[in-house]
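User: Can you predict the 3D structure of Phosphatidylethanolamine-binding protein? Sequence below.
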Amino acid sequence: MARDTLVGMKISADFTVIPDDFAKAAAPEYFNGGVPVVSFPFYIDDVNPEARYLHWEFVDPDSIPVCGFEWIHWSVANLPIGALMYDFNDSHALAIPPDFSRQLPAMIPETVQGRNSSASKFLGRSTDPAVIMRYNGPQPPDKDHEYYLQVWATKKPLPGLNQGFWLNELLHALRNSGEAPDTDGIFLTGKA
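Assistant: Sure. Here are the predicted structure tokens for Phosphatidylethanolamine-binding protein:
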């Protein structure tokens, strides 16, 4: 099938409400520094066959009325698609497994994770990279929030991004990449 007849990349998960193991109701062993740190699984389908790298953000737009800004929960850049396990007999050829954020540095060290909002100087939280440069699970304080996971696929790695990059650096790198990345996203509910 020609690329121009495809709908484009699709992001999905086996849930629409983020399960407790990946959010504020997680078991104590899934927390670090008061934050749930086990990332949830998701699928990436129909990626442009020319794409070689994945990048994503997981953010909470509903945090804006609570704290004055969109909360960054997780960002990843320069994940080589070839480093992921493929099962071409599975309807989901690319799967991001549970707890990927904590396993990523050992599994695929060339992939970088950005700072999340726990790294903000205004919060005075942990300086532990395992907390501030990894997945931070949803902990909405006021009501259920709608979180947004957006994934981009590019043909080349994004230059200039190192461990602990800020989300704006990822967005600038995507804009300046010289290509139109394949992209999709999904909203997932985090329970209060």
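The longest strand covers residues 71-80. The radius of gyration is 16 Å.
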